[in-house]
Design goal:
single chain, about 475 residues, mainly alpha, two-stranded antiparallel sheet, about 70% helix
Length: about 475
């Protein structure tokens, strides 16, 4: 019995040894970010509470996308039996396990969701009024064409100085429940889905499902470190088979309910895929940067090969193209149809300085990384890939802001309060990093006995039949 206990202790030892090689700043940086971010966020609440709440949502959707991307890569690995990701799979597993913990950051959003405190800047209100007038005029023409009688023009909705709910459709729902009348026909047509009770049920279900699948998959992965049994891989394949449908459904619900739902009048059947493409894109480069750091400072030094980084960079390159295709397709279909209920979203973002943000996303999100990574050897050069990573994080932040901030600001107002956004990003980033490091230190830094670990390291393992034939 003593010998058996000693063996078990030896098995657990590799999981705790490698992380001691991490530099001291790796543990201190998250705490620094939390302190600085908290100070800026508190100041932001006192200065401009409306901007702070939307900046909080931007940061939440940013880090949610990274964790969802990690979840997808784990599912993809088990579904397709890929071997290239095995050395860095534990990074993706830890990112996916942060998903249910993000509920702590979402609870304030759930509390704000129906509260009527949001005011918009004069510039944003002007753009909103112009598009509302165009949509109203188009609706009147359609009614006349269908033989309907239009008695009088609806009173314009002047948003200047008025307060509305964080999710404006909740205000329409509340007014309808009180008066049984509504002028918000966009909400009325979708009230079967857009009702507050069902909305709260959906976000609870999303976090529960993420927690169940992500934690079970990592649990089986860690169990395999102890005995190397192939059954754990089989369990995770079955989880991934169901998890991929859960992933697609919950990601779409999250993107539509929490970000697109800010402008519930807008129609886009591609929005879920658009958020998915950006999520995997930013997650891939984040995993690349983490793997590079872990390789340099020790924990993954011997297992992360040059081809591992190359394959990661190649997939990031592929999603650069995929994201551009999805975003262009969404824009082109809306532009081609030219329906006011759809076009107003882009028209608002083509006004004033938001046009420059849109151009920044087009060139920075696609052309720069696309051209920079065309050569195969570039994908393994740390100085190039870290530069691309910083650019990717910045552009993804711009992308999330592009979806959320035009609702309350024109671009100049947004930039004058950008320090609040940076405070929220730093605070959440520090918290997420601290949780990730906790997971990383608690478990082995890479799968210890995964059947594919030898293959990915370029080591040939002789088959039992070959050894028997050789008389061994």
């Amino acid at each position: 019995m003593p010998a058996k206990k000693k063996t078990s202790a030896n098995k657990a030892e590799p999981a705790s040894q490698p992380d001691s090689k991490l530099p001291a700043w790796a543990s201190k940086l998250p705490l620094i970010l939390i302190v600085i971010g908290a100070l800026l966020a508190i100041l932001g609440i006192a200065t401009n509470a409306v901007h702070f709440t939307h900046a909080w949502l931007v940061s939440f959707m940013f880090y949610l996308s990274i964790c969802l991307g990690g979840f997808f890569l784990v599912l993809l690995h088990y579904l397709l039996d890929t071997h290239w990701i095995v050395p860095i799979r534990r990074i993706a597993e830890h990112l996916s396990c942060i998903l249910p913990l993000l509920v702590v950051f979402f609870i304030p959003i759930a509390i704000w969701s129906g509260a009527e405190f949001v005011t918009v800047s004069d510039g944003a209100a002007t753009y909103g009024e112009e598009q509302a007038a165009k949509a109203e005029k188009a609706g009147q023409k359609a009614a006349i064409a269908n033989g309907e009688k239009v008695e009088a023009e609806l009173e314009g909705h002047n948003e200047k100085g008025e307060k509305r709910a964080f999710y404006s459709w909740m205000q329409s729902e509340r007014e309808y429940n009180e008066t049984h009348e509504t002028h918000d026909h966009a909400w009325y047509a979708k009230k079967g889905y857009l009702n507050s009770g069902f909305w709260h049920l959906r976000w609870v279900a999303c976090f529960v499902l993420w927690g169940v699948f992500a934690w079970l998959i990592r649990k089986n992965s860690v169990e395999q470190d102890a005995d190397g049994a192939s059954k754990w891989t089989g369990y995770n394949r079955k989880l991934a088979a169901g998890g991929i449908f859960v992933f697609a459904t919950t990601l779409t619900i999250g993107a539509v309910d929490w970000m697109k739902g800010l402008e519930h009048q807008w129609f886009s059947t591609m929005y879920g895929v658009y958020y998915f493409a950006g999520s995997v894109w930013v997650s891939l480069i984040t995993i690349y940067a983490i793997a590079l750091m872990m390789k340099k400072y020790g924990p993954l030094k011997d297992v992360v090969q040059k081809k591992t980084l190359k394959d990661n960079g190649t997939l990031f390159f592929a999603f650069t193209v995929f994201y551009a295709y999805i975003h262009f397709s969404q824009y082109f279909l809306i532009w081609n149809a030219s329906i006011p209920e759809e076009t107003f979203w882009y028209v608002k973002r083509e006004q004033g300085p938001w046009w420059n943000v849109g151009m920044l996303i087009i060139f920075g999100h696609f052309f720069v990384p696309f051209l920079a990574l065309l050569r195969q050897d570039v994908k393994t050069k740390p100085e190039v890939m870290i530069t691309v990573a910083v650019l990717a994080w910045f552009l993804h932040f711009c992308d999330m802001s592009y979806n959320i901030m035009p609702l309350i600001h024109d671009s100049s107002d947004w930039m004058s309060h950008i320090w609040i956004d940076l405070g929220c990003m730093a605070f959440m980033g520090g918290c997420v990093s601290m949780v990730f490091l906790h997971f990383f230190k608690k478990n082995a830094p890479y799968p210890q006995k995964d059947p594919r670990i030898a293959e990915t390291m370029g080591v040939y393992v002789q088959l039992h039949s070959e050894a028997k034939a050789a008389g061994k």
